[in-house]
Amino acid sequence: MIKLTPRGAGVTASLVVLIVLASILRDAYVAAAAVALAFIVLLDYFEARRLEKAECTAKPSSVKKRLWVWERDSFEVELECQGLDGIEGAPAWLKASLKGCSKTCKVLFEASFKYSGSYTTSSIAASRRSRLGFFSVHSKVELAVEYKVLPEALYWVIAALGLLGFRGLGTGYYGLSIGALRSSTGEYYQTREYAPGDSLRRVDWKATARTGKLMVKEFREEAGGGLALFYDSSCMGRYTCDKVASAALSVVIAACRERLPVVVFEVQEQRGYSYASPEAALAHLVSRVLEAGVVSDADIYEFAQPLTKSEVERLLKNLALRRREVSRVRDVLVGASRVFYVSALAKNTGFLLDVVDEANRQKTRVSVVIPAKPWLDYEDLEQAYRAYLTHENVVSKLRALGAEVVEWAGLSPGTTSRNLSAY
Question: pTM of this prediction?
Answer without folding.
Answer: 0.73
